[in-house]
Amino acid sequence: MKTYFQKPQEVQRKWYIIDARDKIVGKVAEKVACLLRGKHKEVFSPHVDTGDHVIVINASKAIFSGKKETQKLYSAYSGYIGGQKTFSPVQIRQKRPNFIIEHAVRGMIPHNRLGRKIYTKLHVYEGSDHPHAAQKPIPVTLD
Fold it and tell me: What is the mean pLDDT of the chain?
């Protein structure tokens, strides 16, 4: 019996929606990465983008476990001498509340061309409003 690999043109994509309100960032990101990658499907192939679109709402209300809210640091480097900056989650939430979820998910998907393509199917919104109601997203609960 031969192993079946799904072809890119055969993939049927669905839309899922996850509410991140009062949910732990890592657990939300893990579920989102699984859905984006397509690992929940029986036809998963590691070299084919078999994943679905994922909408994350209330991203600004996601929480960290433990003391990460005060101790975790995000860093950015401009490329110049002395150009490294560090930001706490509190500072990030004020400027870009979606970044925390996006950064966590980006770290959980492959770091190659396929991963960049997978990442385009992630839609993160600060509040509960989103423009994807026409796609009839399926609500996902975190277990």
Answer: 95
For 124, the 3-state DSSP assignment is strand
Structural domain count of the chain: 1
Q: What is the CATH number of the domain that holds 100?
A: 3.90.1180.10
pLDDT beyond 90 at 4: no
Residue 11: what pLDDT? 92
pLDDT digits (tens, 9 = 90+) for 72-91: 999 999 999 999 999 999 99
Residue 130, domain extent: 14-65+95-140
Contacts of 136 (CB under 8 A, 6+ apart): 15
Asked, for residue 76, whether it belongs to a domain, the answer is no
